[in-house]
Amino acid sequence: MYTLMKELETSYDKESILAGRPNKDDLLVVGIGASAGGIRALQCFFENVPANPGMAYVVILHLSPDHDSQLQQLLQHVTPLKVTLITEKTRVQPDHVYVVSPDQHLIMSDGHIIPSSNAGIEERRVPVDIFFRTLANSLGPRAVCVVLSGTGANGSMGLKRVKECGGAAFVQNPREAEYNEMPRNAIATAMVDDILPVSEIPEKIIAYKLNLGSVQIPVDSEKRAEEEQHALREVFTHLRLRTGHDFSNYKRPTLLRRIERRINIRNLSSLQAYAAYLKHNPEEISALLKDLLISVTNFFRDKKAFDALEKDVVPAILQNKKAENQVRIWIAGCATGEEAYSLAILFAEKTMGSIDDPKIQIFATDIDEAAIAVAREGYYTLNDAADVSPARLRRFFNKEGEGYRIKREIRETILFASHNFLKDPPFSYLDMVSCRNVLIYLNHTAQERVMETFHFALKPGGFLMLGLSESAESASDLYTLFNREFHIFQSKRIVQSNYPVPESVPHFNFKEPAASQAVISQENRTRERVMRNDLHQRLLEEYAPPSMVINEEYDILHLSERAGRYLQMTGGEPSQNLLKLVRQDLCLELRSALYQAVQRQIAVEAQGLRVSIDGQSENVNIHIRPVFRQGDIANGLILVIFEQSMEDAGGQVILSSDEPLARQLEEELIRLKAQLRASIEQHEFQQEELKASNEELQAMNEELRSAAEELETSKEELQSINEELRTVNQELKVKVDETTLAGNNLQNLINSAEIGTIFLDRSLRLALFTPPARTVFNFIPNDIGRPLSDITNKLNYDDIISDAEAVLEKLLTIEREVSSIDGRIFLIRILPYRTEEDRINGVVMTFIDMTQHKKAEIVLRENQAWLNGQKEAFQAAMNGQSLTSSLNPLIRTVIDQMDGEARSAFYMTPSGGEGLHLVAGMTEEYAKDINGFQIGPESLACGLAMHTGDPVITEDIEEDPRWEQWRPIARKYDYRGCWSFPVRTIGGPILGTLAIYFRQPRSPQQRELEMAAIITHSASIIISRYNEAVERAQAEEALRLSEQRLKNLLKIREEFISVASHELKTPITSMKVYAEIVEERMAETGNHEDGELISRLNEQIDRLTVLINLLLDTTTISEGKLKMNFTDVDIKKVVAEKLGDIQRAGTHKFELQTEELPLISADAERIGQVVTNLLSNAIKYSPAGSTVRIAVRKEKERIQVSVQDQGYGIPKAHQQKIFDRFYRVTTDNFDTFPGMGLGLYISAQIIQGHHGAIDVESEEGKGSNFSFTLPIKS
């Protein structure tokens, strides 16, 4: 910030700026500064700005550079003025509003606004001050600044510059500001013209502009009317009486311009009206005084000038200065102290840290007591300290709150005092005087007197520093030029000064208007007489004894030329009191004499007083002459005359030689008694005053105690209010966060919806639009605020404005489907804009691009038609209709999609044939004409498509030479174009072709090719399913015939088995009988040679008997005639009996495990049959000598019988089938064993007949475990 502020402190001609006299036709530029809470204030401000104010407005919103500012759109929404975002150098034009993004700052130069990037933190901290300063430097009295809601002190420094250059300053009332720090800091400068609600500021500025030039006070008094002359006299009289300041030595044009400005600010019509306003509004006198005494300065103002001081002046002053010496500097017109502290810092940097350095004493004075109070405080805001480098801030300032305070060691080097160097006694023996930007306000005569005063105050060779618009070259006899560029001069040494010590300046001499030449002559004579009187007065002062005039407080009002020799300036705060200025040798006697003269109202003399002046001792007599003349301006004043008496070096009074010594001693005694009496009276009087003061102090203490109690109560109330405010702030922050989140959600919703939306106010002016709206309207950012009717659009919609007006009038919603000039379709909805308070503030229009939706609708309708055609075709195919009937719906779909301008047909190859034949779509006559159409590479249309598997498109048959042979048929049936598409399943064979015929030549579109692909795919499914259905019907018929033959064979087998088993049973029985007879005969004869044969015969007969029984059982089971004879059976007994029968073979080992078991209800014979079968299989399918384990146990509510062998085992693939009829395991191990596969089948049927279950567990190579369970008898 320090660097930037120094760059902005460029030289500018302040005197010419102040001399400017704007009028209502000039372009005024209004700079508006705001920060936090400023958006709402700005909107309120511009809502009250008329359409053609004739001014330009520049808005500086102090926000974070990362902030995404929408200020341009927000302001355009509320003002008819054009709002422009500044991105490049722009000339200012009336009736425009200029804004800048937060990452840039603006400066004003030569009628242009110039943006610059905020490269450093300083630009980001004070953008408002930057612009206000350059605005003031550029436009002077044509600049207006406005400070609105915000935090910090941004804008206050720039406001000072605007006021310094004659501009106007307005501030938002802090009570209504959302954040009041910026307004309060601006008000604290005491330079604000008016403090108003933000809604009233625009009107005030416009009134100020319209009044510019309406009141012009002539500079020449002869040109002023009598009424104006009288009114002007009243204005200055009010100023002098109320403030004590006399402006007779100030430049009249400047004074009159300031008064005119106050008249404009107060919106008054004449000087006379302003004089009356002053009379009834005393606060305006203070405001006028502030305007006349613009106290504006800043730290190290004009950096190059201070660099010159640091480099050349300060070392020259400090040269040859020792610790016992003192550096004395006077800052005349110090304002709020920044310049005084700047000089103190320069000297401190050169002297601090060394014991040999001289003491620095700086006197800083100004006639503005409010500015002096600020200077004494030594506290400055961050913005005030912006001109101080960071290093100096750290060294010479203490951070305190939101600002900086001067360190004590710097503060103690400066004495601040209220002082008017035009009439008050100056300081003396000074090393330097700095009086910058003050002389430009004074007339030439006053400037000369000031030069004399400063020369009197400076020691020879002392330095004088003036402002860049000021010079001491007119007093070349008093000063020599030291630095021309920065206006630094040095005091000359002269033998005797011809210039008197400054005295009271006479009042304004307001002359009457000239009436005639005689009057002019009379005035000239009067002027000559005045000059002679002045000469006489000067001669009297030169030869008369030194004297002075004081008031009743003993303050010096005027002193003669040589009276200063009896006065002596002392360190500390300067004073005008005679008793503090008179030499100490005279103080006691003078105090006593003054007291007697005032109390007794008589003339008093103090004689024979000894005083030491410049090392010489002399006697002096003091004469006190009070003035008591009622009605005279001199009434109450006191004349003090210093008369040097004739005495010897010893200090005795010189008397006549005949006067006796006793007379001298008597007079001395009388004089001493008189002094003593006066001292006693003065002491008694002061004692009475002290008593009264003590009583007053006691009363004040009581009041202060009461006030302290009230303050304590107020403090508690404030603490309570602070707690409430903290709670409210927390709630507000939550609401702000919610609002921010809602705003972000809304913005993201708008962006994601991609729906063009525009917002219009009640006048149908554009207030806001979303980016997608640019696809409909030709929007640019500057269109905000323009009527919608002025903005071009791309719609075929002439009634858009009338529809919007109808929505506003009738509060209804209007929907329109409108096309655009580029062929798109938009759904437009126009509805009222309702606020949360249910107020209608305008119209909202939304534009939804329905183009793709409409295209999708068309595609959907086409697809629906295709689906309907396919559905109908598939339904026909599923209902078993003919292939032609199934394909006809697809043909109708093709014709419908071609707008009825086409015909279509399906072709297939006949079974076992090579040519094509018509299946569906064309007439029988056409089918006969194309019968035998060949398939191959030399073919065309459908034949070629059938051969290659690719579509064949003939756009114009008449132009295709391949159609020459078939062209007559095309002409006969009236078609010029032919598209052929192969019909095939994915990865399958070509089943046929689809042909589409057109009366006119035609090339296919992508959508038509997609439709053909869908139709051919559907046709391929139908044809494939049709072929599959035919093949399936044929297969089903063949299967039915096979099943019928199988049933017949099974029936024959069953009949054969039944007959064979019955027929064989009788021969077997006979054979058994015959074998027994033979065996008996052999026993009778004793012939046993054939016994073994007979034994084998019996075995074969037994086996045959078992086989026949199995066949009979199988027949019985298949006929459902298997009968059971249930009795109470002891299952252990049955198992033991059957095991006994088997054990006789003696080939295997057996283990039987049993337990106590209940009886069961079963057929003992059939259960025995099952056990025998399982035991026989165990022996058959296990090696001889192996062990067979039989277990009979109870398992819950059932009896389980298991037979486990150590045989070959059964493969898993056969385990679930071994209980089927005639099933035998076909492996190498089992093929060697005889059997029919009926034993386990019959066993399973017997167990199922007992409501039991049979199962097997087996593992190849480890044996099998067969088990069955039977229910226990209940």
UniProtKB/TrEMBL annotation:
- Which SUPFAM superfamilies has this protein been placed in? ATPase domain of HSP90 chaperone/DNA topoisomerase II/histidine kinase, Chemotaxis receptor methyltransferase CheR, N-terminal domain, GAF domain-like, Homodimeric domain of signal transducing histidine kinase, Methylesterase CheB, C-terminal domain, PYP-like sensor domain (PAS domain), S-adenosyl-L-methionine-dependent methyltransferases
Domain (PAC): give its ranges: 812-862
An example of a GO molecular function for this protein is:
protein-glutamate O-methyltransferase activity
Residues forming the CheR-type methyltransferase domain are: 220-483
Domain Histidine kinase per the UniProt entry, residue ranges: 1059-1274
Is Lipid metabolism among this UniProt entry's keywords?
A: no
- This protein's GO CC annotations: cytoplasm
Q: Extract the coiled-coil ranges from the record.
A: 662-738
Q: ATP-binding: is it a keyword of this entry? A: no
List the catalysed reactions. L-glutamyl-[protein] + S-adenosyl-L-methionine = [protein]-L-glutamate 5-O-methyl ester + S-adenosyl-L-homocysteine; ATP + protein L-histidine = ADP + protein N-phospho-L-histidine
Q: What is this protein called?
A: Signal transduction histidine kinase with CheB and CheR activity
Report which superkingdom the organism of origin falls in: Bacteria
Q: Per its UniProt record, what PROSITE patterns does this chain match?
A: CHEB (PS50122), CHER (PS50123), HIS_KIN (PS50109), PAC (PS50113)
